[in-house]
Amino acid sequence: MYYIIFAIFYLLSLLPWRVIYIFSDFCYLLVYYVFGYRRKIVRSNLKIAFPNKSEAEIIAIEKEFYKSFCDNFIEIIKFVTVTREEMDKRFKGEPEKINDLIEQGYKVQVHSGHFFSWEFCNMGYSPNLKYPFLTVYMPITNKIFERLFLYIRERFGTKMLSAPDFKTAFSPYRKQNYCLVLIADQNPPGASVGFWTEFFGKKIPFAKGPEKGAQFNNTAILMANMIRVKRGYYKSELELLTKDPRSLPEGEITKKMVSYIENTIRRYPSNYLWSHRRFKWEYIEEEHRKYSI
Question: How far is it, in rounded angstroms, from Cα 33 to Cα 27?
């Protein structure tokens, strides 16, 4: 069955980009207007994040989000056969900042949020780095699509590390020079095990793993954004957060990361994954004061 699915994706990937985006437009109509996929969650998140925006402005951001959401996943079809030359044309990043840090003797950890298009970012950065490019991901339940997505994401040299098996998967690289990429705005498994900090004026918890890992391995930390320039074209900017994570007090790395992500979202509000429940936890002062930063 895998080879049948792969063959379908391969043939579809040969279609021009403009045809691929016709598929995406059709998906948008279904996802937004017919099925209303997570529209209540998206609308609620946007109203919390942008309380001063009008209903019309919220809906405009919402619709643009769903268009980008559909593009993000439909574009994966093209990655089955896309060439490195075409990726270099369609994606502009700053790989030299990663290479320079590693050449200075630093291991590097890149923290980012759920910006569109993280798939383009992976495909764009990996062939332009001199060192192992490691990306942590959540496995897909369907084994056929898990295998297909791993093939696509690793085409240009990325090493995908399964989050549930991270310690074992990461072990061979721990003593090497590397760049480890984490989508670091994840919700923790429980409110009491996260760092609580403000995100759009509301205290919510964030996973501790990215900060703890950086301090344990003493890695330089870069913050990354992804920006949609126009349809099918993206760029990424990198900003140094610290070269010495162990010198920062507990929670400071997470706090700076969250501030960076929020500032990026304010610049490009529809370019963030609003379909996840970002504000699902309720902060109770007496219970969570000791976890706040």
Answer: 10
Q: Of 265, 291, 280, which Cα lies nearest the Cα of 115?
A: 265
3-state secondary structure of 54: coil
109-to-2, 5, 8, 59, 122 alpha-carbon distances in Å: 33, 34, 36, 36, 14
Question: How, if at all, do strands 220-230 and 179-183 pair?
Answer: unpaired
Query: Rounded to 5 degrees, what are φ and ψ at 215?
Result: -70, -40
Q: Is residue 292 part of a domain?
A: no
* Domain assignment of residue 75, given as a range: 2-280
168 by Cβ neighbours in 10 Å (0-12 / 13-18 / 19+) ranks as exposed
For residue 48, is it within any domain? Answer: yes
pTM, whole model, 2 decimals? 0.91
pLDDT in tens, 107-145: 999 999 999 999 999 999 999 999 999 999 999 999 999
From first CA to last CA, the distance across the chain in angstroms is: 49
